[in-house]
Amino acid sequence: MTSTNSVHVLGIGGSLREGSQSERALRIALGGAAEAGVTTELISGPELVLPFYDTALDERHERATRLVEAIRRADGIIVVSPGYHGALSGLVKNALDYVEDLRDDARPYLDGRAVGLAAVAYGWQAAVTTLEQLRTITHALRGWATPLGGSINTAETKFDEAGGASDEKSVRTLRLIGSQVAEFALSRAGH
């Protein structure tokens, strides 16, 4: 846990497309965390282009090292993945595989950290199944999935460049996910 003066929430996700709907959703959720009084950091899109995770390799690519160190420092995490063919993207899954590098830490994997989750897909089926997979992965990595998760259907909801969306309920949901992560982290830090 970091000092009580600097509770930090990390956002991971998005896609390779600049300004993707999933990255915009992630930025909204991080905004909710920031409003709750924590510092935030975003690692998305091209920053997540990493070699396939391989436990047999000791050396890590510069971006992989940055990701692992950011996760290690984080008091809470928000993950937003696009839903591709009913599942989370390979980009996000590979990034989460790198959490394995924290296995021998004093705080292994995502232990003791709230993890806010959302899935963004064109259709309800992929949005819901992707969120379920993110929850399963979070539990396997010893993280505390927030009570609220977000399944967002971009056939109905469009995110804009200004940090909003055509559906205000989706914005409220994402901000609440961010604030739940922040509040959990703040309570663990003794605020």
Automatic annotation (TrEMBL):
Signal sequence residues: none
PANTHER family attached to this UniProt entry: CHROMATE REDUCTASE, NAD(P)H-DEPENDENT FMN REDUCTASE LOT6
Name of protein: FMN reductase
InterPro entries for this protein: Flavoprotein-like_sf, FMN_Rdtase-like_dom, NAD(P)H-dep_reductase
Gene Ontology, cellular component aspect: cytosol
Residues covered by the NADPH-dependent FMN reductase-like domain: 8-147
Gene3D superfamilies, A to Z: 3.40.50.360
GO molecular function, one term: oxidoreductase activity
Domain of life where this protein originates: Bacteria
